[in-house]
Amino acid sequence: MSTVRPERTYSGKPIALRRAERRAAFLEAGLTLYGDRGFARTSVSDICSTANLARSQFYTEFEDRETLLIGVHEQIETHVRAAVADAMDRLPSTSTLGDVVPVGIEALFYALGTDPRRARVCFVEMNGVSERVDHYRIRRKRVWADFFEMLVRAHIAHDYVPPGGYDVVTAAFTGAVGEVGQRWSQLEPRPPLTELVGVMTSIVGALVPPLARSRSDPPLDRPQ
Questions:
Q1: Please, which contacts does 183-186 make with residues 24 or more away whose CB atoms are closer than 8 Å?
Q2: Domain 69-214 in CATH: superfamily?
Q3: Which pLDDT tens digit goes with each residue over 65-109?
Q4: For the chain, which end, N or C, has fewer CB atoms within 10 Å of the first or last residue's CB respectively?
């Protein structure tokens, strides 16, 4: 007969829960420091001080500052993907690509822009850190490129191929998101979100000509 071992606890809390709380505290500290002062100007000591945790606890959760940076970015991307998916799920089933694209772009930049730290981490601090971070960024761009291709095929035709092919078009799309997003995140004051959506929608329309002909309604206004 097997016995169930009691869950290990520390100071009245399950150890697994305490570890999850520590990891969350380090991620929040990373978002704050990388998003406010920048990756290069943040030390492990700074992170531990902000999280109110020990260096030994940091190295239990993360290999180094880069690993934390990737973890912070993954957390932001999870939030952004959920925001984009939710915005698209609320569209009518009859929506065209011209309806879907601006709504998705608006949701993406709104999810980032409501917290300036997220925008800085994604568009500024992830650039030029190391070869490892660059490889991670390339993989994440590929995910967004595949998502963009899926949208185009689903709303135009499964066998539709845009001028230049999907490799070129998706590279142009993800590159535009990164470059425009980086510039937008650094401007003071920032241009209104509606203007940014208009610029990005025009770019996508140039890459995928049928989009410009399929637009019906403008995206919903949001607080700037």
A1: 184/109, 184/113, 184/119, 184/123, 185/112, 185/113, 185/116, 185/119, 185/120, 185/123, 185/124, 186/124
A2: Tetracycline Repressor, domain 2 (1.10.357.10)
A3: 999 999 999 999 999 999 999 999 999 989 899 999 999 999 999
A4: N
pTM: predicted TM-score of the whole model, two decimal places: 0.84
Structure tokens, 108: 């993406």
In the chain, where the domains are located: 12-62, 69-214
Q: What is the DSSP string of 54-77?
A: -HHHHHHH-SSHHHHHHHHHHHHH
CB 72 within 8 A of CB 124: no
Q: Side chain identity at 166, as an amino acid letter?
A: Y
Cα 67–Cα 70–Cα 75 angle in degrees, nearest 5: 125
- Fold (CATH) for 12-62: Arc Repressor Mutant, subunit A (1.10.10)
Helices 65-89/44-51 angle, 10° precision = 60
